[in-house]
Amino acid sequence: MPSITIKGYDYEYHDEEIIDFNEGLIGLPEMRHAVLIPLPDYRPFCWLASMDDEKTRFIVVNPYEIFDDYSPAEYAILNESETDVLAIVKIHSDWHKTTINLRAPIFINRASNRGVQLVLTESPYRLSESLPRN
Fold first, then answer.
1. How far apart are the C-alpha atoms of 48 and 29, rounded to whole Å?
2. What's the CATH number for 3-124?
3. Per-residue pLDDT for 87 more than 90?
4. pLDDT for residue 86 is more than 90
């Protein structure tokens, strides 16, 4: 089974788990293949790790896990039963300053393992939304 190293740790994955981004991510057009690595100790957060560049790694989360009322309008055009939504998280050393990008979610179709990142142009969501304090 292949593995990927992130921050000194090896994580195993299956080849069929590789996500294809035909157009890359916004600002990273060269990121065409990635794998999602769950972080059991930090659930619901995961790594989204590029297979094309070992330095390109993001912490992501399903925004519905944190924001109950999150509802990107563009999501209606996708098959909801087969599509996962992820948002990139910007971790700050002061946890209260950690933000999540709700304006440019990543959509992943589980059936085809294809992904796309969209910018929600007509949206109240921000690129750097503060995490809710519980």
1. 15
2. 2.30.290.10
3. yes
4. yes
